[in-house]
Design goal:
alpha/beta, six-stranded parallel β-sheet, 10 helices, 14 strands
């Protein structure tokens, strides 16, 4: 397995989560961090004992001691810096959503292909053993034929996050920030049920409460997916809801609390899936994770860097999810 020297682009909350994960990983080290100011970069470097701190992203990309770059900038900057990292010959793990639109995602993928580097969108929940167990249960027919999915990821953000997520210039809104998990999960269920990779819905519709600037505060969506599966989704950044996924089949149902934010994700621990057969009592299935989710993510990149894509998060998977998000935002009137 490749040992990776990581450079972090940006110093926000998610960058801090990933830095802590790399510290706990088996095949990664923190080599450098960059921010828009040298002071912020140095403060972050001191906190995580990172040897190099840069006051510009360009300096980090020019560092020969950086193998892989974690792009943790605001959404609207993902495309630029993922492409520039690839052009600098760095492997790229980019926070979700990879870009603001599917055509932009294809540009990033083209840059990775042309420069022969690894690229993956950072949907960390996909590597967790809970997610893999959920897929196994669906594939095994534990609930019969899948008919419907109900998935929610919605929270009430603080003032700073609300300002960022309410700004259309930064790619704000609940759909791009956490609705992307809902589409990813719903599509994953369809893929497990049908065996078709990188599925896309045949129909997308929805409604949202929009801000004056046209950003979705919270939104609901409906998908018709391969396998004739109907998924209802709810997301938002100004409305607390019960985060979960329920999967209904002809022989029972599956329930997972917080499927994308698994036991706060940071540390090893036990999470649960509830399987309720149509003719039986609920069974609580416990899944133990021996690594925190961000440590696992860093090691997953190291394991697959030679393949240039993660097998569970291929480039085709990313584009299919981005196309679904484009259609959902169009359906709710985003930007109007």
């Amino acid at each position: 397995m490749t040992e990776l020297r990581w450079g972090l682009l940006a110093t926000g909350t998610i960058a801090a989560e990933f830095a802590a994960g790399v510290e706990q990983s088996r095949h990664g080290v923190l080599a450098a961090v960059a921010s828009r100011t040298a002071e912020r970069a140095q403060d972050f470097a001191t906190r995580y004992e990172i040897p190099k701190a840069y006051g510009s992203y360009e300096e980090l990309l020019a560092d020969p001691d950086v193998d892989a770059v974690y792009v943790a900038t605001p959404h609207a900057q993902h495309e630029e810096w993922a492409i520039r990292a690839a052009e600098a010959g760095k492997h790229v793990l980019c926070e979700k959503p990879l870009t603001l639109t599917a055509p932009d995602a294809e540009k990033v993928i083209d840059a990775a292909r042309r420069n022969d580097v690894f690229l993956m969108e950072a949907f960390m929940y996909r590597m967790h053993p809970q997610t893999r167990r959920l897929v196994e249960l669906i594939e095994s027919g534990a609930i019969g034929e899948v008919r419907a999915v109900d998935v929610t990821f919605s929270f009430d953000s603080d003032a700073n996050d609300a300002a960022r997520l309410g700004d259309p210039a930064l790619g704000g809104g609940g759909i791009l920030d956490v609705g992307c998990y809902c589409t990813s999960l719903a599509r994953l269920v369809s893929q497990a049920a049908t065996g078709i990779p990188a599925v896309e819905p045949t129909l997308v519709t929805g409604m949202a409460r929009l801000t004056e600037s046209g950003v979705d505060e919270f939104a609901m969506g409906l998908l018709r997916l391969p396998g004739d599966i109907i998924a209802q989704m709810s997301c938002g950044y100004l409305l607390t809801q019960d985060d979960h996924i329920r999967i209904y089949g002809t022989a029972g149902q599956l329930y997972v609390p917080k499927p994308a934010w698994i036991h706060e994700l940071r540390a090893p621990g036990v999470s649960t899936i509830v399987l309720t057969p149509s003719d039986g009592e609920p069974e609580v299935i416990e899944i133990e994770a021996t690594q925190g989710i961000y440590a696992r993510e860093a090691d997953y990149v190291a394991a697959h860097v030679a393949d240039r894509q993660g097998p569970e998060l291929t480039w085709a998977e990313t584009v299919a999810n981005m196309r679904t998000l484009d259609r959902w935002r169009a359906a709710v009137g985003y930007g109007r």
